[in-house]
Each structure stands twice: as C-alpha cells, then as structure tokens.
Specification:
Blueprint lengths: L1 H8 L4 E5 L2 E4 L5 H13 L8 H18 L10 H9 L3 H12 L3 H19 L4 H7 L5 H12 L3 H6 L12
Amino acid sequence: MAVQDVLNELSIQYVEVKLGYVNFAKNLTDLEFSEFKRKLEDLGFELLNDKRMELIEQIKNEIIKLVHHHEKDEQIGNLTQYLPHVIGQSYTSLSKLFSEVEGTTIEKYLILQKVEKAKELLFYEELNISEIAYQLNYSSSQHFSRQFKSITGLTPSEYSKNKEIGRNPISEV
C-alpha cells in the first residue's frame, strides 16, 4: 500500500503492485525513476533494479508466502518443485544464485522462516508443539524441536514459557 501511495502521489501509472514488485504501465523517465526511488528510500524501502537481486527477492517472497501465508501444508518444504513452478527457472540455477548472493542456502532460509512462524504460533498458544510441527510440514515433533533448538538455543517449550524473547521481523531473517 505504501508503494501504491507513492506511485499515486507521483502520478505514475502502474498495472500491478505486489510484494517486492511493480509492473509499470509505461517506462519511467529518468526524473520519474529518481523521484520514485527517493520517495521509497525515504520510507525505508530499497529499490532493486538488478535482475539477480530481483530474482533473489522473488525467491524470498515466495518462501515467505509459502511459510507465513500458505494454504497447503504439504507445499512447505517441497521447494524443488514449488519454486521452479512459480518462478520459471530450474531449482538448480535458483539455488546456486541464492547461495552465491546470500551466502546461505535456500533450504536454510526456509528453515529460518519456519522457525519465525513457529515462534509466532508458540507466542499465541493456539496450537501445541505437535500441531505446529504438522502445520510447518515437519516429519515429527522431535525433528521440529531439534531444528528449533538449533536455531534459537531453546526448545519450543522453553521458548513458549519465556514471552520476553522476541521474534525477528520476517524481512530481517
């Protein structure tokens, strides 16, 4: 919505605005582009105009959608099929690019996102550990607990008892 507000304020026509992506109705002039970029930076956004970085952001956004806004539990963890389907490139090339640019694997990024989602679910205490493990597509609650502890240093039970421990914003994972 913030990006749409900037576009409307600058009277820049667009076709579509999605998380991390704007489809402009026409090419921007240099002046329009620089003003758009400045306004976004004032709001704390970074404008990506590099195709490699755009692809990395698209991978991250798809993983975030999959973990935090998913409808089908079985898709979480099946990135080798899901990402090529939605992005249109082979998983091997996506994985290689992601590792080169981010210094970590797609799988590790997925795990970090799953742990953040688990923290949210533990905080609200609506699901037990087994239900959280199932929702996040872990093979067992023991596997979930081991992975959670390896990332946070705490078991899910210890984490849920200590409400002062914060969560990380999704964009900073």
